Every structure is written in structure tokens, then in C-alpha cells.
Amino acid sequence: MADKSVVKGQRKLHVKKGDLVRVVTGKSKGLEGKIISVQPDDELVIVEGVNRVKKHTKVQQAQRGGTTGGIVTQEAPIHVSNVMLLVEVDKDGKKQKVTTRVGYNRVEVQKRRPDGSTYTGFRSVRIARRTGEEI
């Protein structure tokens, strides 16, 4: 992998904030949750209820609305390669959540210029590879 200081621009990840994912490897394997935050430069995501760790907090000064010390449980980041997107599929009349890879399609759309005129442009949309439907 290239040095982060050399690579310019933001990395593109297959998942984004708000997506429902399942952990496919590691100590939290099989757990599902919603993505709380994404760190594209480090290729990390924080998933709700997954990879929970205990953090020891120090007592802060009470003058400035400080906090009390103690042990807090919170989610730690997990590498983006360890999660897969979940989509709902109709199987025998039942809705099931299944993992899928993410693909991209270019869709033709009507765009509007500031002066009010319209033109045809293209936009990239995410699709679920398993179902072929737009996410």
C-alpha cells in the first residue's frame, strides 16, 4: 500500500454511513449493524454494536462541566474489508437479509443548468451484485 502522505484525494469505499452491514471475519464475525462513521483515508468503519471495547476515562475538572471517571464501553473501528453490505431478498415469500458485493452503473439523468436549461448527463449509482437492484 502506498504511503498516505503521497496519495492525494479521498479513497472510495464500497460502503457508506447508514448502510446495514454484516461482519464476515474477526472476533465479531456474524454480527450485523448500521455504519455510524466512515474513515476513508484509513479504510476503517465504525459499526453500531460491533467490536465493542472498554475505555478507561479520567476524571475531568468539574469547573468546566467536566466528566466523572470510569470505564466506558464503545465501538472501535473495524477494517472495511471485514464487512459486507446487507440487502433484503424475497425468498419463498419471506424477506431475508443476505450479503452482497457492490457494483456501479452509469445512469442517464436530466440535469439543470443555473439558467434553467436542461441537458442529459450521467450519474453513477450503487447496485447490489446479488440482486441487480439499486441501493
TrEMBL record:
KOW domain: residues covered: 14-41
Matching CDD domains: KOW_RPL26
Pfam family, one: ribosomal_L24
Database matches in SUPFAM superfamilies: Translation proteins SH3-like domain (SSF50104)
InterPro entries recorded: KOW, Rib_uL2_dom2, Ribosomal_uL24, Ribosomal_uL24_C, Ribosomal_uL24_CS, Ribosomal_uL24_KOW, Translation_prot_SH3-like_sf
Membrane-spanning residues: none
Family annotation (PROSITE patterns): RIBOSOMAL_L24
Keywords: Ribonucleoprotein, Ribosomal protein, RNA-binding, rRNA-binding
Gene3D superfamilies with a match to the protein in the record: 2.30.30.30
Top-rank lineage group of the source organism: Bacteria
Cellular component, GO annotation: ribosome
Family, similarity comment: Belongs to the universal ribosomal protein uL24 family.
Assembly with partners or alone: Part of the 50S ribosomal subunit.
Function: One of two assembly initiator proteins, it binds directly to the 5'-end of the 23S rRNA, where it nucleates assembly of the 50S subunit. One of the proteins that surrounds the polypeptide exit tunnel on the outside of the subunit.
Protein name per Swiss-Prot or TrEMBL: Large ribosomal subunit protein uL24
Protein source organism: Kribbella lupini
